[in-house]
User: Fold this.
Amino acid sequence: MASLDDLKTMLGLATDDTSQDSVLALILKNTDLQLRFKLALGVGEQVPKELAYIPIEVAVRRYNRLKNEGMTSYTQEGESITFNSNDFDDFQADIDDWRKRHSQDVLITVDPFYRKRGD
Assistant:
């Protein structure tokens, strides 16, 4: 999982400033959990090193959107910001490529005529 210090560095925050640590830690945790879900990782499996850059990049986006959650765009005094509906959209191709390379290619079939013994 990405470190709190890495996220602070990306955001331009001082690493010794702890005033936002709880919010930043929650953003990192939720981002990691969502990526793990998208990768179909099991309990105890870690985000692969090839994709370790994604949680920090998404966490930065989520931090920058604080207090603007749910908005698709924001305009103030001539400045306009547009948000993606899904923070992982820009990384979906990388996620899909990783899943293709690491899929087990298992075909599961169902026998419609199978009956339990005793039927």
